[in-house]
Amino acid sequence: SVLFAVVSVVLVCFVQERGALGFERHYHVTDPFIRRLGLEAELQGHSGCVNCLEWNEKGDLLASGSDDQHTIVWDPLHHKKLLSMHTGHTANIFSVKFLPHSGDRILITGAADSKVHVHDLTVKETIHMFGDHTNRVKRIATAPMWPNTFWSAAEDGLIRQYDLRENSKRSEVLIDLTEYCGQLVEAKCLTVNPQDNNYLAVGASGPFVRLYDIRMIHNHRKSMKQSPSAGVHTFCDRQKPLPDGAAQYYVAGHLPVKLPDYNNRLRVLVATYVTFSPDGTELLVNMGGEQVYLFDLTYKQRPYTFLLPKKCHTSGEVQNGKTSTNGVSNGIHLHSNGFRLSEGRAHVSPQVELPPYLERIKQQANEAFACQLWTQAIQLYSKAVQKAPNNAMLYGNRAAAYMKRKWDGDHYDALRDCLKAISLNPCHLKAHFRLARCLFELKYVAEALECLDDFKGKFPEQAHSSACDALDRDINAALFSKSDNAEDKKGGGPIRLRATGRKDSISEDEMVLRERSYDYKFRYCGHCNTTTDIKEANFFGSNAQYIVSGSDDGSFFIWEKETTNLVRVLQGDESIVNCLQPHPSYCFLATSGIDPVVRLWNPRPESETLNGRVVVDMEGASQANQRRMNADPLEVMLLNMGYRITGLTSGGAGGSDDEDSSEGQVQCRPS
């Protein structure tokens, strides 16, 4: 009976502890806390830019690495410096990691001197030095399931794996990107899935993010060594360094098509940071030169530029998402070579009227649209979409707002919304027309013509509207254009492979993997990531409720994950915020950048005076960053040097054409 009582007490304590931990993790980042987030302290100690931050598992230690080649371990809760040591590196430190299951005793650093160093903090000594990379080491990754193992990504295009149990002081190449992409490819970042440590995500030059199965790679190489023909190296072996199924690529669907234009403007696309959600089901990417993207690893979707709505039978049945009928196709057909029409009949779910509170939100969004407050309209429509995900009208209206705002990626998000609206209501008139316009803006000119012809057939009363005539003229002018890229942009598939501009260095295996890429789920806009290639974006909250990212304007941005709405902007650095590392269990955020300090942020007391670091005009900051991303690189350089460039400090969002005044009644107003 005594034993039973003891066991019962232990079980009760365990359940209570787990319950308290679950409560803490569920509620440690909430909307009221985000609204009160402010600066708590600045940790002084470095003499150069602070390029990397890392919490230990418990969250009672914070490590930082700097251009000063030192690493500092802090007690962030008491704002104390516990340890500072020179790492032995001869150049800027870019990554710092605690080795799991080492009692926070072992710290790993990677630096611009191409070296990876392992340090014993208890004796302040560097115990291992690896010099296998031939270019700057940008990131280190660790995994709890592999306690003596870690990985590095460097600008020599290699992902290396290290095992501290081995006597050898060398590492092995796990992934060689140069075998796929040529000698100029650079690996920039990597991370291991926290729930399944067999999966490794890698960011590199270009818009594609790669997900690898480490176990499959090791098993493949083990079987190759055991094979009787292991010593025979054939051309086929060299072309297939990884087994089939060991890699999966992800890409924002519009970026491969945009890449030639970006290259012409010296605008570089590179993944500067990748991280998994706490449950391991999502992958977040900060795409340098573009936006922040979230990829769903469970419900994967192909790029929408490969999808075309099926025909609906008449223009008189349903228009603009207000009503619907049965007997009309609502499917979306997947086709690897662009758009094509598909016949078929399927049930269309009846459109449900919006409840009064959502109808009010929609009306507020329509009013914002009428006042040309495009971002405000998008955020309101997004808020309504989250609550009513099967309402075609909301998607159609949000598409119109995206098309008016014209930020980078907006036309592709508008295309996605049009396709969603049409899948819910196949006779949504405005969504059909906007789809054709989006295809044209995305340079899918032949597909735009096909879609416009389909629109005229479905809605003959609109065939000679001013909007149709204007789009028809634009398409025909583009089709007869003598531009160098005209042939490349007629098909959806091949352009995705030719987009790098160095096609002769791209292997056949790489082409296949790119063609099988999956698209993003959410996109987050407002920050700017063009000046540094170590800028992070992270999930904030144990349930990944928020997304945070640094920015070239010295601010960091916080978005709601599900709505993608920007909810808070804070000034985090005098120049650039690069690093943002959320505490593992508190509403506590560490940031750093060009300033030689580490800043700590948490919810401030309501009695505290007004937070001077809050950027009140979030819309203005976002517009300025869009202009900055589209500015001439020389102008950005001059701006960083302190010169004021008119085009960067005033006016509308960059990269947008003048508003089309001839779009007619089909496209102009939301429903």
TrEMBL record:
<dbReference type="InterPro" id="IPR015943">
    <property type="entry name" value="WD40/YVTN_repeat-like_dom_sf"/>
</dbReference>
<dbReference type="GO" id="GO:0080008">
    <property type="term" value="C:Cul4-RING E3 ubiquitin ligase complex"/>
</dbReference>
<feature type="signal peptide">
    <location>
        <begin position="1"/>
        <end position="22"/>
    </location>
</feature>
<dbReference type="InterPro" id="IPR045151">
    <property type="entry name" value="DCAF8"/>
</dbReference>
<feature type="repeat" description="WD">
    <location>
        <begin position="570"/>
        <end position="611"/>
    </location>
</feature>
<protein>
    <submittedName>
        <fullName>WDTC1 protein</fullName>
    </submittedName>
</protein>
<keyword id="KW-0732">Signal</keyword>
<dbReference type="Pfam" id="PF00400">
    <property type="entry name" value="WD40"/>
</dbReference>
<keyword id="KW-0853">WD repeat</keyword>
<dbReference type="GO" id="GO:0045717">
    <property type="term" value="P:negative regulation of fatty acid biosynthetic process"/>
</dbReference>
<dbReference type="InterPro" id="IPR001680">
    <property type="entry name" value="WD40_rpt"/>
</dbReference>
<feature type="repeat" description="WD">
    <location>
        <begin position="86"/>
        <end position="129"/>
    </location>
</feature>
<feature type="repeat" description="WD">
    <location>
        <begin position="540"/>
        <end position="569"/>
    </location>
</feature>
<feature type="region of interest" description="Disordered">
    <location>
        <begin position="650"/>
        <end position="671"/>
    </location>
</feature>
<dbReference type="InterPro" id="IPR019734">
    <property type="entry name" value="TPR_rpt"/>
</dbReference>
<feature type="repeat" description="WD">
    <location>
        <begin position="43"/>
        <end position="75"/>
    </location>
</feature>
<dbReference type="InterPro" id="IPR011990">
    <property type="entry name" value="TPR-like_helical_dom_sf"/>
</dbReference>
<keyword id="KW-0677">Repeat</keyword>
<dbReference type="GO" id="GO:0005737">
    <property type="term" value="C:cytoplasm"/>
</dbReference>
<dbReference type="InterPro" id="IPR036322">
    <property type="entry name" value="WD40_repeat_dom_sf"/>
</dbReference>
